[in-house]
Amino acid sequence: MTDEKKKEYTLRISQAGDATLTIILYEITNDYLEDALKYLEEGNRELFIESIHRAQNCIRTQQNSIQFQYEPGTVMFSLYIYLHGQLAKALAESDPAPIREVMETEKKLCDAYKQVEATIEEQPLMENAQKVYVGLTYGKNSMPENMESGSDNRGFRA
Amino acid sequence: MRISYNAPAMVAVNSLTRNDEALSNSTGKLSSGFKINRPKDNPTGYALSRRMKAQLAGLNQAKNNENDGISIIKTADGTLAEVHDMLQRLNELCIKSANGTMSDGDREQVEKEVSELKNEIQRIADSTEFNGQKLLNGTFDLRGYSNDINVKVLTYENGMTAGKYSISFEKEIPFLDGVLETYLGAEQEELENLRTHDATEEDIRYTVSERLQEFLASKVNVTFEDGSKVTGVKIDSMVDNTMVLKGDKGFSLTITIDKAFAAVTQYETQPVMVNEDPTDPTSPLVPKTDPNSGAVITEVVEVRPGTLATAPASDVTVELTNLGTMTLQVGGNEGQTLDVQIPSVSLKGLGLENLTAKTKDGALEGIDRVTAAINKVSDIRSRLGAYQNRLESTVTMTDNLNENMTAALSTVTDTDMAEEYSNYSTYQILTQATTSVLAQANKRPSDVLQLLQ
Description:
The complex is a heterodimer of chains A (about 160) and B (about 450). Chain A has about 160 residues and is mainly alpha-helical. Helix content of chain A is about 65%, strand content about 5%. Chain A contains five helices and two strands; from the N terminus they run αααααββ. In chain A, a hairpin with a 2-residue loop joins β1 and β2. In chain A, α2 runs antiparallel to α3, α3 packs antiparallel against α4 and α4 packs antiparallel against α5. With about 450 residues, chain B is an alpha+beta fold. In chain B, α2 packs antiparallel against α3, α2 runs antiparallel to α8 and α9 crosses α10. Chain B is extended.
């Protein structure tokens, strides 16, 4: 993942509510898996392993956020366990097929959540974050428009 | 001799062997009902499922432990409800006996019932048990020790830092004839006066002493082993020989003082002094020296005397261990424990050892004692109630987790099933929009940002 992509995600996370955060998580997972496919093709085993591990961490985060008292939670938990296992299989066998399977599943869930996000109104989860309007950032101490805000802090080690 | 090699036949045999193996694998799966029979079927899946099975077994046992814990607490609480009733009755009897219209004969009768009730409370404290372990005699109370044989740590608040605390009292602890004075004590003069009038020892005790009041209002200095001071420590109460000290930040310690505890005798090595002129006693004193070597001769001298009956030393060091509570293993992993503290409800622990309704003053004072005991028992019961709530909610959670993990374990093990599940999930997400958002609502932005590092 490039630095620019990370910054973009950071910006989105700072403004995200619950559903949006879920979508972002799916997208991050798929980005890491795309990188993994790329490194596998190039033959870069080290970076391939790192990408798979990062994707697994994302899936683990999704797993840990499951609330069992809601019905969709139980089904998704089973799915995440399976996906986790498939990535481990891909790692062991250096096989792209399981990776593609995981990406497809994550995309399906992501698309479903995107449709849900469009119908609900959410507040950002991060407090005291900078407000972003049309790509320009307004902070507590910076009312004027600021095009150069690369050094501003958008969150935990962002 | 010619060695021939029939290639087609070899191929056919190999093929047959492979098919045979595949068939027996499939048969194995069908007959066992498991898709993953052996590690080679699906190594990752197998490892995952073994780990989950171990976790499940652990959770099942943890659930049993929690249920045991709930049973123990219910046993203790049920018994304490009986003690509560007895204390209410004691309160009634003391109020009755304190009434001026009662004669000595009437009070004797009341005293009989008081005695019976006291014995019963002690019996309950000594005999209530669960699975062979006594519950109410202090077995599961926090342990503490002191450096003086006459001072014992009875109980202290859970949550206090374990370690050594040095306690020193600003005023002398009032002892009367070697027995700790309480608010049953008497001034020396008054004591003599009462004795000359043939008053009984009990009557003597039932008089408030000024010396005691001064002591109760005095400061107590408590220092922890690292040098830090515990602020705001005061003597909260003193009943018989049980003293409760309370201070800031949850400091609460109950000690019993059996006798005047000894001052530490201090010795010093000092030179032996003799008169400069042995024949003249008025000549100045000089250190005695050895005639051969010229070295100063020394002796060991007691500079601070030891045990004093009337002016005991006023410092003691207590060590709190934070051990002794009942530890319940309430989860499947190490560290998932709950400490249950059950203080003693013996007569001594409740301050009822010297309770008597034989005299009017004794009964009056008894009302206060019993009220304090009732408060103490209420306190213990509410603490047990809190433990029970925690255990019950942990059981519910473990139940849920167990059920869900079992469900998760037995579902997705192959591609087709995964596809089916993802379709089903998608359908649920779209038709139950709000619930689907809540189903994954436990994330923190910081956790997600962490994934980008």
